[in-house]
Write a structure and sequence with these properties.
37 helices; 935 residues; elongated; mainly alpha; two-stranded antiparallel sheet
């Protein structure tokens, strides 16, 4: 360590020697005066290097290098700036042993030396260099005097004593002190000490006043002994180029402070005590003696032109800003209280006003303490106050810092919440609480706890009791009076503008559903066990069911309470619907009767009502159809169903138009009573009616084709009858029957595959998916969603959706053609049977054909009175006509079916693609598809 210190001192000596040699070409180390100057410079260098003074800028070597380059470039030395940049890049890249670790300090030293060497020395009136006093002001070590002007070496003492007197120094210092005092304001040297941070000028000096006092002392000494004593004192005080100011034993410093206080008092028209008192008045919204509120300017201002420093005026007006904020907050509270009870204020607004009033009460307490402190006199800077309970402008600015922040926040909230109420107001305040300042965050949380208290009480009452106590429309749940069947879907909804931002949308939906479930159980299900379930939910969440159990800071407790209440109440609601009201059984009954899933019942019903429904729609009795429905139930397995289910099944006659038959207006309906009508609403039942009409028409077409098959089914009787027919008639009858059977086969293929697709791929698959979703449903909304999905699936897959309207029209044309085909087939086989019977009668009357007969001839269009030749002719004409009709119908059916196939192939639903595959599994109809689809 000692070796390092010695090496350090040697390096400093070498550096000082080089600097002195480079600064003066006449420097000679052998000269005694030069030796003394060298020793003085070495002493200053060692004191600087061993001091603890730190620069006021950050230690950034890159920034310092950029500053030096800019300084060189600004002074017109661009080439030197480039050279420095190159040197700095090499200097910054050099690392390892022998390199400089603190590169910034080296750059800062070089810059400081350069600035000191280039700065112009401005002289004091009597020739003292500015560097001498500037260093004292900034708290650093005093700079050396320039050689040849005011050097303080062995030769410098003489030059100093010859060029100026000590009194001149004192006068110069006093003038500088006076000028600085005017700039600093009325606070005097105390402010100077605080702001400038004057350090010791020497071991025994404290601040600027030591310099002034000692100059005065030096002046007195100079008067008594102008030569020897002054020189001794000068040499003592300025030893080594440093001003050594001793502590004044005669209390001259205190006298200077008093003189300065008197001087500032004469310059100010208003004392600091009066200003403090006016500020305290203004902070309460009261006009003071000099500071009053200007309505036009909407700010506090001095009532008249008062003489005071500008800094003091700015500080007073800035402190009075607290009073302006207080007036805004107080005015808002007063206005709201005067409007009570008003709907636009509400309970949340009242809570907000109460919270603001509480904060103002705390503010008044602070002002009371400050007023008590303002009664104590303000001590001078030099006085040691026995008590710190006095109030000055500086102290007031410090004490007002926290109330100013709070009052600014309250004024900001008041301004933003003027037109808000309820949850919107709470959400707006919550947005301001998202602040990084702990003081702001804690203050707004405390305020929000009071403001949100009514809102959280509404949430608690709604979630646990189903009560909506919101007379001012502040809650984010709205209700409207409706019938019981519309209570769940339309009775309650979220009010978005009143939803606070600290309550997520998902949580709000859960809160809404929980309260709806309680009201649904109470009103629609007539259940009273929900109260016990709500109590269990509150106990599980660890929350009291009484008022005041929730608050803004307990948002986690709110989420836990809502989750527990929703889980238990929703489960209880589903249990009531499943067990008490047998929801699943009713869904199955609708599937069996309205969706025609009970096959034996549907077949028997179609058989017994077929003859009635063939009549005109306006001539059918609904009571008779109801009796036939009862007969079909008793004649099928439907008789074993729950009587409550069978009692809900009824006949419904839809509105009819002229020319409609019973088939067009007949339908079944299912009476879904409360609370099941929440699921089976009128719109839902209307869609069930559409599905029933489609399925009923499909079953009717199937029933017709079965009837045609029964009619044209060959038997031994018809076979023997065909043998007795003439050959030409028999061949023509066989060809016509073949055409009819081929067309029936095409129609039956289409109807059978469509029937299979509807019953199995649509109804059964949709029912299976619906049953699975019902089992995993957690609340009534899930149940409604599952049923809606089930119903939409049937509608879309059954070609009843909005996107399948054209395809449905083509399908109904095919159904109409099949029904027309039934009439043609019946006419063909009725004529065939009549031909068979006439042929038999003709052969029996052949023997009597020669005997005269007195009977009248039959009608011209009857075959009864015709002979065998005429019978053969008429039979041929009939068969040719029927064959032509069947050919025309086959062409028309083929044309319509082509359109159906072409439209079916472009449908987007995957199950309709499967129907296309079933209808064309042999690719016979592929030729009808559009060319782009095939590609």
């Amino acid at each position: 360590m000692e070796g390092d210190e010695g090496r350090f001192v040697d390096l400093v000596k070498e550096l000082v020697h080089r600097l002195l040699c480079s600064s003066s070409s006449h420097f000679n180390s052998q000269n005694p005066s030069a030796s003394q100057e060298y020793n003085q410079a070495l002493k200053i260098a060692l004191r600087i290097l061993s001091s603890r003074m730190l620069p006021s800028i950050s230690s950034d070597d890159f920034a310092m290098a950029e500053s030096i380059k800019r300084r060189l470039a600004a002074s017109g030395k661009s080439s030197e700036a480039l050279t420095f940049a190159d040197l700095y890049s090499k200097f910054s890249l050099k690392t390892g042993p022998g390199s400089v670790s603190n590169k910034w300090a080296v750059l800062y030293l070089l810059k400081t030396i350069s600035e000191d060497g280039e700065a112009k020395k401005s002289k004091l009136p009597n020739g003292i260099s500015n560097a001498f006093l500037d260093s004292a002001f900034t708290g650093g070590l005093p700079a050396l005097f320039d050689r040849g002007e005011t050097s303080v070496g062995a030769m410098g003492i003489k030059t100093l004593s010859n060029s100026f007197t000590v009194s001149a120094i004192s006068n110069g210092v006093e003038d500088l002190k006076s000028s600085l005092g005017n700039v600093r304001g009325v606070r005097g040297l105390n402010n100077l000490e605080m702001n400038r941070g004057i350090r010791d000028l020497a071991d025994s000096s404290d601040n600027f006043d030591y310099l002034s006092d000692n100059m005065k002392k030096l002046t007195g000494l100079g008067k008594s002994s102008k030569d020897s004593k002054m020189k001794e004192l000068m040499e003592k005080q300025y030893s080594g180029g440093v001003l050594m100011v001793a502590k004044d034993p005669e209390n001259i410093r205190d006298m200077a402070y008093r003189e300065f206080a008197e001087m500032t008092k004469d310059e100010n028209d208003v004392s600091e005590v009066v200003l403090v008192r006016d500020i305290l008045y203004a902070s309460q919204g009261i006009d003071g003696k000099y500071v009053k509120f200007d309505e036009k300017a909407d700010a506090y201002a001095f009532s008249e032109r008062v003489n005071m420093p500008r800094a003091t005026r700015i500080m007073v007006l800035k402190l009075c800003e607290l009073g302006w904020l207080f007036r805004k907050v107080k005015g808002y509270i007063t206005e709201r209280i005067e409007r009570l009870p008003a709907e636009d204020v509400g309970t949340v607004g009242q809570a907000f006003c109460a919270a603001l009033q509480d904060e103002l009460s705390e503010y008044f307490k602070l002002l009371a303490v400050l007023e008590a402190q303002a009664m104590n006199p303000i001590p001078l800077v030099s006085e040691n106050a026995t008590s710190g309970n006095y109030l000055s402008l500086r102290r007031l600015s410090v004490l007002f810092s926290e109330p100013m922040v709070k009052m600014q926040l309250m004024a900001l909230l008041v301004e933003n919440c003027k037109v808000l109420k309820g949850g919107a107001m709470a959400g707006a305040i919550h947005m301001h609480a998202q602040h990084g300042d702990p003081l702001v965050n804690d203050f707004l949380k405390k305020l929000l706890r009071r403001v949100c208290s009514p809102l959280f009480e509404m949430v608690r009452a709604w979630v646990l009791e189903g009560e909506l106590d919101d007379i001012f429309s502040e809650f984010f749940v709205l209700s409207q009076p409706l019938k019981a069947e519309s209570l769940w879907n339309d009775g309650y909804r979220l009010h978005g503008p009143m939803l606070p931002s600290f309550i997520p949308q998902a949580l709000a939906q859960r809160i809404l559903r929980t309260g709806k479930s309680i009201n649904f159980l109470r009103v629609c299900c007539e259940d009273r066990c929900w109260a016990d379930v709500a109590t269990e939910a509150a106990a599980a969440a660890g929350t009291s069911i009484q008022r005041g159990g929730l608050g803004y800071v307990e948002t986690d407790a709110l989420e836990t309470l809502v989750a527990e209440a929703a889980k238990r109440i929703d489960k209880h609601l589903l249990d009531v619907i499943y067990k008490k009201y047998k929801f699943k059984e009713h869904c199955l009954a609708i599937k069996r009767y309205l969706l025609l899933g009970q096959g034996d019942f549907v077949q028997y019903l179609m058989d017994v009502v077929g003859s009635e429904l063939s009549e005109a729609a306006n001539s059918i009795s609904s009571f008779k159809l109801a009796g036939l429905l009862e007969g079909a139930i008793r004649s099928s397995n439907a008789q074993y169903d729950d009587p409550d289910v069978l009692d809900r099944l009824r006949v419904k006659m839809m509105p009819h138009n002229p020319g409609d038959t019973g088939w067009d207006v007949f339908s079944l309906e299912y009476d879904a009573r409360v609370p099941l009508n929440t699921v089976f609403t009128e719109s839902v039942m209307s869609r069930y009616l559409r599905i029933f009409n489609f399925l009923w028409k499909l079953r009717r077409v199937e029933h017709v084709l079965i009837g045609v098959w029964k009619t044209m089914k060959p038997s031994c009787v018809t076979t023997r009858a065909y043998i007795k027919l003439p050959d030409a008639i028999r061949v023509q009858l066989i060809l016509t029957s073949r055409k009819c059977q081929v067309l029936w086969g095409e129609m039956n293929h289409f109807v059978s595959n469509l029937q299979y697709y509807i019953m199995f791929e649509v109804l059964e698959v949709s029912w299976s998916n619906f049953s699975k979703e019902v089992e995993i449903a957690e609340d009534l909304d899930d149940l409604l969603t599952a049923h809606e999905k089930y119903l939409n699936s049937i509608v879309e897959k059954s070609l009843l959706g909005d996107q399948s309207q054209n395809l449905k029209q083509v399908l109904f044309k095919l159904f109409d053609l099949i029904l027309r085909f039934r009439s043609h087939a019946d006419r063909l086989y009725e004529g065939t049977f009549e031909l068979q019977s006439r042929t038999t009668h003709a052969s029996q009357d052949k023997a009597r054909s020669h005997r005269p007969s007195n009977k009248k001839h039959s009608e011209p269009n009857s075959w009864l009175g015709e002979g065998r030749k005429d019978l053969t002719r008429r039979a041929g004409e009939f068969l040719r006509s029927m064959g032509q009709d069947i050919d025309d119908m086959a062409k028309e059916y083929s044309s319509v079916f082509k359109g159906f196939i072409s439209q079916l192939s472009i449908q987007q639903h995957i199950d309709l693609k499967f129907l296309m595959f079933r209808l064309d599994f042999t690719e016979f109809y592929s030729q009808f598809r559009p060319r782009d689809i095939m590609l």
